[in-house]
Amino acid sequence: MQSINALRRRINAVSQTKKITGAMQMVSSNRMRQVMTHIEYNNKYFSAIRQTMKEVLTASQEISHPFLNERERGHHTFMVIAGDKGMCGAYNANVLNYTLKRLNETPGSSLITVGDKAEEFFRLRGIHPDITFLGLAQDPTLKRAREVAAHLTYIYEQELTDDIRIINTSFYSEAKGVPVELRLLPITLHSYDDILDAEDITEIMFHPSPQTVFDMMVPQYAIALIFGVMVKSYASENHARMTAMFTATSNAQEILDDLNIRHNLARQTAITNEIAEITGAAESIRPG
């Protein structure tokens, strides 16, 4: 049995750990709630853009744009979004291992990383990212989404790759916490197959032209998609961290309960031994 002092030290250490994990759980919960508003608004905006783009493409067969051109040279670009920090369960490991698998399946592909953990993961495996965005995972703002969109669209415009795919962690439905892969570019009509309620606008006149309207919407489409995956990844990371810290806090409480029982037993044993010693001493000095 451990000494009372050793048990007290362990109880103090576990109590401090429980306070830290509890605080981290609350912080992650607050961050996740704050970003939910951005996700909701961006989803509505992105859905409206996609529906309108499909309507324009359907209405005019003369639309042309560099981002509509498909290429088949076998070169792909993957942008993976991970976190800057750990202590979030398998969040980072899942998305990074999935990306590594995709890179192995498509040799010669380019890699773009978002987050410190992503860069560290691939550099340790001898894979050097072509572009690295640091600090983005913890601050997914619309301004930064525009900067990322500018880099990615430039790569495609210069014909440096056949397509650009974004790998992040899902936040909704049964796939929550599972890596998902989205194609950013090129844009095709098949990209809008899930939109079933697009209106027939063949009789509507666009000003100054359908081409101009489409050209103006394409950059907004790219920005909205990138901002959407950024905030969803941020929410997913904080949900994973909140869950991990809740589990850690619960485990710490279980350990504390066990340590307190052992501490009380040790105190009772010590008191019993002291009473026995006092009684024995009294008996030894009692006159015969």
What topology does this entry show?
Elements: H1 4-59, E1 76-81, H2 91-105, E2 110-114, H3 116-123, E3 131-133, H4 142-157, E4 163-169, E5 179-185, H5 210-285
Parallel strand pairs: 1-2, 1-4, 2-3
Antiparallel strand pairs: 4-5
Helix pairs in contact: 1-5, 4-5
What does this structure look like?
This protein has 288 residues and is an alpha/beta fold. It has a single domain, classed as 3-Layer(aba) Sandwich (Pyruvate Kinase, Chain: A, domain 1). Helices cover 59% and strands 10% of the residues. It has five helices and five strands, in the order H-E-H-E-H-E-H-E-E-H. It has a five-stranded mixed sheet, with helices on both faces. Strand 1, helix 2 and strand 2 form a beta-alpha-beta unit. Helix 1 packs antiparallel against helix 5 and helix 4 crosses helix 5 (210-285). The radius of gyration is 29 Å and the shape is elongated. It starts with a helix and ends with a helix. The mean pLDDT is 83.
Q: For the record, give the distance between the C-alpha atoms at the N and C termini, rounded to a whole number.
A: 38 Å
Structural class of the secondary structure composition? alpha/beta
In percent, how helical is the residue content?
Answer: 55-70%
Number of domains: 1
Order of SSEs, N→C?
HEHEHEHEEH
Mind telling me the C-alpha Rg? Answer: 29 Å
Helical run tally:
5
Residue windows where pLDDT falls under 50 for at least 5 positions? none
By DSSP, the count of extended strands is 5
What do we call the CATH topology?
A: Pyruvate Kinase, Chain: A, domain 1
Q: Kindly report the average pLDDT value.
A: 83
The largest sheet is:
5 strands, mixed
Give the name of the CATH superfamily.
ATP synthase, F1 complex, gamma subunit
- Major beta sheet, strand line-up: 3-2-1-4-5
* CATH uppermost class: Alpha Beta
Quote the beta fraction: 5-15%
CATH architecture: 3-Layer(aba) Sandwich
